[in-house]
């Protein structure tokens, strides 16, 4: 697929000279800085661009209009419908949900309409640039709604007998409400000579083109010369016009015969110059019989070629099938002579009428609403099996992949927003192929503003069984706490994710801090470690050592001594901590009460001998040996006496 | 205990009940003690304005009908006043500002996680820096500051008496503090559970203040009797996701409301008493029962789940409002309380 490449210039002299490199910062931010590319052949020397002047780093992000407060409402509400659509598909078989899908499509449209209304409300109060911006949004979403409506008629709705005209007229009426509004005000004014109104004939022809024959008749009645026989005749003719509707049982053939009779009748009246006295009425009559010249005359009344198309079809091809639409559309474009300046909206509408879904999707991708439209519409088309049917026609095309690629794109866009990321997740969840992998990549990139948010992100990761992600986020939050001097909190985060190595790292920090300042921090935490201590050996040691301290402080020397011996006998003492333990043994060895048995003392002496070379122990070694010997003497005597 | 949809409750349909779009990731818990005009306050003031001034909001609480305190993720606390001068628009005015009263040792701002108020004046704030601050709405000074009250970040706080507060940290360790005592040590200390469960909200029974209920990260409701608090009285596995908030109805303590990150909002009510009226109920409060609590409670869902986290709820008479992650506030009218 061809894509336009957009170039952004980084306004920096250094970047210009040296070249640039970029890294992803968060989900949607790119960090750009000056960078000189080196390869192995270049000498290992400082870059030529090195200087003392501060250099700049640029953060780039795509502007997403969907993050505007009003449009955020659209995003949130449409997400609700999107989820409803997905649930619908899961729970029912295809035959059942066709009707439901149509309802969903209407819900999407009503959300767009509500959004347009909100935009309009704000527009009246806005000024300057903001006004321009809002106006821009309105244009975009107006087109979105217009195209969606047409696509709904052509691709989602099930039209009995494929007679598309009445829906088409409805679509036109919806998007060119001017005539209806004018007619309503004129009729409400109850004046007798309506033709003095400057828009009078415009409105009459407009209504006629929209197939509102009744309104045309109603508008003709208050004309000052309504009693004139020509007017009466016109009224009569229009009243007699057969109406095609599949519902009231008239078969198409029957209707065609009626229609032919009626047009022949009108034509004969025209030929008899019955209407020539009133040129407007004459034109009306020539229009309803589909006279080419008359339709050329009326062209200027039409704002768009599709308005012309609907009117023309109503009077010349009332029983057109939806697949014939493209052909008629082309014809009206030629007639209106607009083929050379078709706007974007015109092109999409034409493509839709030609049932070229690919073209439609391709065109709507270029609408600047950040993929909202294409994601939702292609999802809807996919579920109404419009895309799957294309798989047979086009080789190497997978409808599911197409749908997923749009939804993925849209979901990723939302993930970049500080409050819409949960919405983005809902979309990514419905991408069966890559959704989970993308979530696993993006979740850790969400900035951790506060712990409540962190917990929330972790919950989302847990819900999807992304244990690596949980661990990664916990570690990030833990490191953040550590940086802020909250080592207890860091440990807490490490324990949350059962991260053994990180826990050990933190426990080491605790012990080293103790060696440095002789105090164990975060006592409230260490006191309540409980079973989580089992995550790492180092933490077990820390917990036990804290317990030893506690026992010692509460003067439970006997228990403290026992704990010390079991610690010495265990193999979990970190190297740097050995000497602390051995020194801690000295006062216990020297205590008045006998605390160590002879075996215990042997353990201590054995350890002391093994660790003789520790530099920290140098000056204390003799004292230790002495007190151990004295204690051994006491213990042996005591044990001998009690044997 | 699958919640059923009660016929008499009329949840508003998701689309029509959207009152206002909110600007934040975390919806502000709007503790509304105000009476009938709370609909209008929601319409007018909760959204963008606050956000621009204070950054991400932590918690808001009303002191009386006009004044409320709000905490921010930048570690500051604001006392605000709502005024309604001439037109219908309600404005907010900051009357007192306690700037950066929560910060880390390295100078970074610490989010003020939540706050609690007692009567009309006393305010307690806690933060991720593990500090507790006692403020008074009449004074700019910090009346009492307990530095390093906890080595983990404090996530919940509640007043038990005017001089006693209970805090709970990231690991579920709960501490009771006596504000009069001069040493910075808690008077009592107990654990929510041994498994690193983070409590997300606390509340006490409106008439029996010693009865405390905590909601946690795993969706369980734990009941404590603070007269003997080392072990919980009972644990109810309730919601799918984390419980975001629980509240007793202020006038009708038989009714409890809870909401969760899985998008559920539930109404718990004690079952109508069956059996002989001659038998006096041995324990009038079902929450204090040791077993079979589930059989004594009925649960209703107030709103079809939206698939997005409900971050907060509040109630007044028979109205419940809740704030949801889809940036909308929902108002549920006519909740049956009997």
TrEMBL record, chain A:
Native species: Acanthoscelides obtectus (Bean weevil)
Keyword Hydrolase: no
Record's GO cellular component terms: nuclear membrane; nuclear pore outer ring
Pfam families: Nucleopor_Nup85
Function: Functions as a component of the nuclear pore complex (NPC).
GO MF terms, alphabetically ordered: structural constituent of nuclear pore
InterPro entries in alphabetical order: Nucleoporin_Nup85 (IPR011502)
Localization: Nucleus, Nuclear pore complex
Predominant cellular place of this UniProt entry's protein: nucleus
Coiled-coil residue windows: none
Oligomeric form and interacting partners: Component of the nuclear pore complex (NPC).
Gene Ontology terms describing biological process: mRNA export from nucleus; positive regulation of DNA-templated transcription; protein import into nucleus
Assigned protein family: Belongs to the nucleoporin Nup85 family.
Name assigned to this protein: Nuclear pore complex protein Nup85
Keywords: Membrane, mRNA transport, Nuclear pore complex, Nucleus, Protein transport, Translocation, Transport
Keyword Protein transport annotated: yes
TrEMBL record, chain B:
One Pfam assignment: WD40
Any single GO CC term annotated in Swiss-Prot or TrEMBL for this entry: nuclear pore outer ring
Record localization: Nucleus
Domain of life from the UniProt record: Eukaryota
SMART domains per record: WD40
PANTHER family associated with the record: NUCLEOPORIN NUP43
Protein name per the record: Nucleoporin Nup43
UniProtKB keywords: Nucleus, Repeat, WD repeat
Species, as recorded: Acanthoscelides obtectus
């Amino acid at each position: 697929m061809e894509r336009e490449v957009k170039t952004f210039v980084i306004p920096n002299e250094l970047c210009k000279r040296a070249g640039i490199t970029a890294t992803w910062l968060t989900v949607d931010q790119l960090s750009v800085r000056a960078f000189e590319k080196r390869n192995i052949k270049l000498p290992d020397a400082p870059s030529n661009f090195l200087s003392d002047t501060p250099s700049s780093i640029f953060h780039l992000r795509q502007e997403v209009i969907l993050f505007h407060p009003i449009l955020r409402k659209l995003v949130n509400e449409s997400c609700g419908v999107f989820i409803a659509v997905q649930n619908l598909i899961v729970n029912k078989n295809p035959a059942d949900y066709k009707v439901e899908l149509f309802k969903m499509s209407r819900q999407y449209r009503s959300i767009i309409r509500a959004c347009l209304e909100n935009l309009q409300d704000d527009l009246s109060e806005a000024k300057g640039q903001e006004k321009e911006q809002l106006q821009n949004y309105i244009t975009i979403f107006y087109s979105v709604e217009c195209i969606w409506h047409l696509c709904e008629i052509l691709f989602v709705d099930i039209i009995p007998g494929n007679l598309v005209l009445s829906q088409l007229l409805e679509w036109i009426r919806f998007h060119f409400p001017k005539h209806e509004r004018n007619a309503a005000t004129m009729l409400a004014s109850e004046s007798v000579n309506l033709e003095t109104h400057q828009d009078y004939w415009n409105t009459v022809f407009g209504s006629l083109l929209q197939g509102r024959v009744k309104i045309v008749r109603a508008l003709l009645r208050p004309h000052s010369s309504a009693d004139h026989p020509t007017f009466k005749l016109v009224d009569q003719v229009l009243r007699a016009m057969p109406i095609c509707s599949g519902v009231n049982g008239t078969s198409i053939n029957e209707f065609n015969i009626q229609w032919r009779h009626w047009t022949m009748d009108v034509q004969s009246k025209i030929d008899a110059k019955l209407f020539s006295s009133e040129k407007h009425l004459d034109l009306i009559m020539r229009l309803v019989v589909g006279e080419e010249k008359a339709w050329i005359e009326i062209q200027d009344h039409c704002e768009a070629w599709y308005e012309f198309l609907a009117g023309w079809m109503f009077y010349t091809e009332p029983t057109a099938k939806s697949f014939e639409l493209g052909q008629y559309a082309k014809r009206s474009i030629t007639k209106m002579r607009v083929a050379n300046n078709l706007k974007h909206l015109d092109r999409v509408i034409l493509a839709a009428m030609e049932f070229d879904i690919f073209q439609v999707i391709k065109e709507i991708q270029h609408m600047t609403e950040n993929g909202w439209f294409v994601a939702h519409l292609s999802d809807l088309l996919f579920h109404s099996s419009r895309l799957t049917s294309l798989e047979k026609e086009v080789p190497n095309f997978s409808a599911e992949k197409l749908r997923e690629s749009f939804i993925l794109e849209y979901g990723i866009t939302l993930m970049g927003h500080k409050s819409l990321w949960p919405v983005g997740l809902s979309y990514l969840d419905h991408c069966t192929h890559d959704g989970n992998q993308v979530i696993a990549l993006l979740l850790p990139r969400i900035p951790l503003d506060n712990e409540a948010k962190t917990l929330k992100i972790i919950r989302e990761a847990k819900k999807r069984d992304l244990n690596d992600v949980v661990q990664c986020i916990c570690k990030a939050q833990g490191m953040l706490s550590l940086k802020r001097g909250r080592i207890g909190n860091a440990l807490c985060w490490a324990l949350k994710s059962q991260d053994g190595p990180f826990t050990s790292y933190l426990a080491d920090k605790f012990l080293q801090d103790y060696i440095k300042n002789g105090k164990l921090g975060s006592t409230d935490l260490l006191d309540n470690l409980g079973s989580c201590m089992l995550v790492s050996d180092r933490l077990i040691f820390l917990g036990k050592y804290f317990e030893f301290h506690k026992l010692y402080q509460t003067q439970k020397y006997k228990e403290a001594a026992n704990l010390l011996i079991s610690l010495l006998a265990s193999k979990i003492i970190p190297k740097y901590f050995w000497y602390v333990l051995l020194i801690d043994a000295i006062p216990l060895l020297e205590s008045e009460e006998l605390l160590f048995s002879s075996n215990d003392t042997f353990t201590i002496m054995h350890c002391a001998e093994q660790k003789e070379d520790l530099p920290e122990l140098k000056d204390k070694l003799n004292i230790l040996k002495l007190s151990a010997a004295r204690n051994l003497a006491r213990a042996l005597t005591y044990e001998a006496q009690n044997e | 205990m699958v919640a059923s949809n009660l016929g008499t409750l009329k949840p508003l349909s998701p689309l029509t009940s959207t009152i206002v779009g909110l600007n934040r990731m975390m919806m502000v818990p709007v503790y509304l003690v105000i009476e009938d005009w709370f609909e209008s306050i929601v319409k007018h003031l909760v959204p963008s304005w606050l956000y621009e001034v204070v950054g991400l909001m932590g918690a808001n609480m009303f002191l009386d009908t006009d004044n409320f305190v709000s905490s921010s993720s930048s570690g500051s606390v604001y006392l605000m006043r709502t005024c309604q001068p001439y037109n219908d628009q309600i404005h907010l005015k900051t009357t007192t500002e306690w700037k950066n009263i929560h910060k880390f040792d390295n100078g970074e701002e610490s989010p003020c996680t939540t706050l609690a108020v007692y009567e009309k004046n006393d305010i307690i704030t806690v933060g991720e820096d593990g500090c507790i601050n006692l403020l008074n709405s009449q004074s700019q000074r910090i009346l009492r500051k307990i530095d390093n009250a906890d080595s983990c970040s404090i996530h919940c706080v509640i007043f038990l008496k005017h001089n006693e507060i209970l805090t709970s940290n990231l690991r579920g360790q709960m501490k009771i503090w006596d504000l009069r005592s001069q040493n910075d040590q808690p008077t009592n200390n107990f654990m929510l559970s041994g498994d690193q469960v983070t409590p997300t909200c606390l509340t006490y029974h409106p008439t029996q203040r010693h009865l405390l209920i905590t909601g946690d990260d795993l969706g369980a409701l734990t009941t404590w009797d603070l007269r003997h608090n080392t072990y919980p009285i009972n644990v109810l596995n309730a919601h799918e996701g984390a419980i975001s908030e629980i509240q007793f109805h202020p006038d009708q303590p038989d009714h409890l409301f809870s909401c969760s990150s899985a998008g559920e909002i539930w109404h718990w009510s004690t079952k109508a008493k069956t059996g002989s009226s001659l038998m006096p109920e041995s324990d009038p409060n079902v929450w204090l029962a040791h077993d079979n609590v589930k059989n004594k409670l009925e649960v209703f869902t107030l709103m079809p789940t939206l698939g997005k986290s409900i971050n907060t709820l509040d109630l007044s008479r028979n109205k419940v409002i809740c704030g949801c992650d889809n940036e909308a506030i929902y108002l549920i009218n006519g909740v049956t309380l009997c």
